[in-house]
Amino acid sequence: MAERGRVLVTGASIGIGEATARRLTAEGFNVIATARRADRLQKLAAETGADIFPADLTVQADVDALVAHVLNGGGITALVNNAGGARGQDPVAEARLDDWLEMYRINVLATVALTRALLPGLRKQGGDIVFVTSTAAQETYVGGAGYTAAKHAERMIKDTLRIELVGEPVRLIEIRPGMVKTEEFSKRRLGSEEAAAKVYAGVAEPLVAEDIADAIAWTLTRPKHVNIDSLVIRPVAQANSWTVARK
Ligand SMILES: NC(=O)c1ccc[n+]([C@@H]2O[C@H](COP(=O)([O-])OP(=O)(O)OC[C@H]3O[C@@H](n4cnc5c(N)ncnc54)[C@H](OP(=O)(O)O)[C@@H]3O)[C@@H](O)[C@H]2O)c1
User: Fold this and answer.
1) Cα 193 from chain centroid?
2) Pocket of ligand 1, candidates 8, 13, 193: which has the most ligand atoms within 8 Å of its Cβ, to mutate?
3) Can you give the pTM of this predicted structure?
4) Residue whose CA is closest, atom 45 of ligand 1?
């Protein structure tokens, strides 16, 4: 095991998760990177030396196989629950339940399933769990209910665990990013490149994936008695989810 420990990063095929896997390997952590797309993970492995394990975290058999892989390798010292995302931006009056279900599955249920499975080892040996939620976990906006409901729910997993595990050597860390310009997040949410481009149009310097990776690396490298409970990070041009300066 590397001196700094062994970290499982979910959603590591692209965006914030990929940047986090790259940053943590560069800082001397042993990284296990997971996501569905094996080809992208293979590229990451070739470039960083990260161990990779493709899995769909909404499929219990995949979660089980991933957990077995992690435990066979000696367990982990940290889990970064990053896989997630948004689908659609419909008002509640027109809510598409398929989108709500998908968001709940990946942001909430997959996070609980993996956290629950890896918790015994983390409690026994000590360790960290990072939750990449969103400012959507603390506020809402027109058309945001499906995503904000899922991210509020994800935040409650962390908040509840924080009190359930108090006194144990497990740090529970939440990162709440505002607008981060990643390659696929808004495209997946809105369905087209054009719609995604409008999200960032005229915004001076939205955050980039590396900014969030930097924050995650910082929280994990604080002295062991320091638990960064939650960290809200936005670009200077964004005051809240609906107040954004555009040129
Ligand atoms: N971008 C933003 O503005 C922003 C702001 C606040 C919070 N966040 C949150 O930050 C996290 C990362 O965002 P991002 O912008 O980096 O998103 P992204 O670029 O869309 O990446 C999402 C990652 O999750 C993985 N994933 C999706 N569904 C999965 C599944 N069923 N099983 C396993 N992996 C799955 C994807 O990989 P595969 O497709 O290869 O499986 C991908 O690696 C998410 O939780 C997001 O909600 C993003």
Assistant:
1) 23
2) 13
3) 0.98
4) 84
